[in-house]
Amino acid sequence: MERRTIAPRPGWQQTVEEQGLVYPLTRYPDNSLRPYWDESAYYVFSLEEVEALEEVVEELHRMCLAAAEHIVTEDRFADLGITDPRLAHAVAESWHRRAELPSVYGRFDLRYDGTGPAKLLEYNADTPTSLVEAASPQWFWMEERFPGADQWNSLHERLVDAWKKQAALLPPGSPLYFAHSSADEAGEDLMTVAYLKETAEQAGLDTDWISMEEIGWDRLSRRFVDNRLRFIRSCFKLYPWEWLTTDRFADHVLDTLDNGGGTGTTLWIEPAWKMLLSNKALLAILWELYPGHPNLLAAHLDGPRDLATTTGYVTKPLLGREGAGVTVHEPGAAPVVRAEERCCYQELAPLPSFDGNRVVLGAWVVEDESAGLGIRESAGLVTDEYARFLPHVIL
Known about the structure:
Layout: E1 2-5, H1 12-18, E2 25-27, E3 33-35, E4 41-45, H2 47-73, H3 85-96, E5 105-111, E6 119-124, H4 131-135, H5 137-145, H6 155-166, E7 176-180, H7 188-202, E8 207-211, E9 216-218, E10 223-225, E11 234-237, H8 241-244, H9 250-255, E12 267-269, H10 281-289, E13 299-300, E14 313-317, E15 327-329, E16 343-347, E17 353-354, E18 357-366, E19 369-378, E20 388-390, E21 392-394
Helix pairs in contact: 2-10, 6-7
């Protein structure tokens, strides 16, 4: 793994926008615009390195599924903050019937510096973004800048194949809706949903658009409907399950949840069992089940324990996005346990620095297989909304 600098292509902003990346720039607090898509540098990997990382990702995915089984079997929903018995039952039922429910993708965030083993930072298994830039613009960048090279990137083909394989699980006679929140001002969620919709259409599926805010509830038929009062039988939503099951329509969601072939119900993608993997409590449960595993960091739910005096630790809210609420505690600092919210306390493993840039690898899984890589850089130890995306190449 190596970081190399390179001159950006003339007109790069227009190029990546035409390839689907609608927000190539990020607005900073000082109101300045700086590149989100950053092709002034790129990362180089060897083929052997990528093959080893692919094996790590697929092993981590298998371990996460085993942890999900453990949570359901041992009734550990409370450790994830799922205290509503009705919701716990719905998630457990979804897990038991997962073979009947479409599930498409997820993203592992890994700490890796090219030398030691990759370490799992978290698993974004419900609503992961940065998909478009990983699948499309960086592939075209490689073809233009390094013709004949390769890339850890089979995302597009695997997504199309996944929709083809899972088409039989979708309710017949109605389109698969693709939904995002209209509150997404940056356009990231819209862009992600638009790309996934395109892959579904290439797989031959009938699709339609809707925003989460436009989804209605028909009191007479007791069904979710679109803005033309058509029954929504299936919907891919880039909208976290923890919101879907706590907003004012939560009871209706649970009343009509399709966990496999129900009449008059709505099938949501990703399915409800993804709540087991998109929760930071998973990190602590993995450490319980696989203590000392080379690709895991020590993690606990009741506090930092000995991490406060040995490695230091990172406090992560069980639910969060783009580093929100994450705090870093260096070794030797007095341990702090948050009483106001449930958190995971994970061993501090500072992101590696390449030319002063803190790097995290986003390794994609489609269905159960490794499918690609996206790289983000940040100025600090927490990868937040000001991170930059850099392309990579296998040489």
